[in-house]
Amino acid sequence: MRLVLPIVAAALALAGLMLTASSDRPVTFGAAERAAILAQGPWPAPLHPDPSNRFSGHADAIVLGRRLFSDTRLSLDNRQSCATCHDPAKSFADGKARSVGRALVDRNAIALANLGRNRWFGWAGAADSLWAQSIHPIVQEKELGLTAEQLRDRLASDPAMSVAYRQTFHSAVADDTAERVLVNIAKALAAFQETIVTGRTPFDAFRDAMQAGDRAAMARYPAAAQRGLKMFVGKGQCSACHFGPNFTTGEFDDVGVPY
Questions:
Q1: Cβ(113)–Cβ(199) under 8 Å?
Q2: In the chain, which end has fewer C-beta atoms inside a 10 angstrom radius, N or C?
Q3: Cis link prior to 44 (omega < 30° from 0)?
Q4: What does the DSSP assignment read for 102-113?
């Protein structure tokens, strides 16, 4: 034991020196790696209006959608709102394993961020537009549980909401069909949700500095993060699925985890 311990200690010390030397070594990126890194930006990426939503990007619709997002009148018992499960203080999620609307639902609330760049919506991709997805929680019995007729009547009974509705959609809520009111409200909610965008990160600054050829700015990105990035776009092939400015292909993949 007296002979082994010094040998082990020496080996550990040598390994530590090698690790330190490796950590201190500047990280270099090949041409393919640089191209892959640059493809992860810039952020925020340009946002184009949803062609299926004529209120996408409209200021009045965004204001109304933000107001409705926290309005409990969108629920049957006047107790829940969109913000109940999509809490702005929790990255527009709720931190629960399974969310609770009017009853316990099957899944947890998706964090609402960068939705204007998605192709599919909902955990299972049930909708191909954000406004269509926004209808689901309003009418789903376990979530907000409101009918289109109830929604129209509640909005029509509020003078201020009636004015906001007319200003946004250029029609009277009391005169529109219940189905049209439901769709319009969903489109206003979608217009607001499109404005929820994550901020820039140290990676974005590094990526832009690489594009500009600014080595001094690139050096401010920690070496450990650069080594992780090299693995991300290289040997790890993480960017095969986590691709582009939003770090996703927007598609569905089988990760081998049962439902």
A1: no
A2: N
A3: yes
A4: SSB-SSPPPP--
Rounded-to-10 torsion of CA 202, 205, 207, 211: -170
Separation between Cα atoms, residue 70 and residue 139, nearest integer Å: 16
Q: Which of the 8 DSSP states describes residue 45?
A: P
H-helix or E-strand containing 27? none
User: What is the C-alpha end-to-end distance of the chain, expressed in Å?
Assistant: 52
- DSSP type of residue 116: G
Please name the residue that has the structure tokens 């693995």. 231
Q: What is the model's pLDDT at position 251?
A: 87
By the 8 A CB rule, do 245 and 197 touch? Answer: no
Count of other CB atoms within 10 angstroms of residue 151? 21
- What is the C-alpha to C-alpha distance for residues 192 and 185, in angstroms, rounded to an integer? 11
Query: What are the backbone dihedrals phi and psi of residue 143, each rounded to the nearest 5 degrees, phi first?
Result: -100, -90
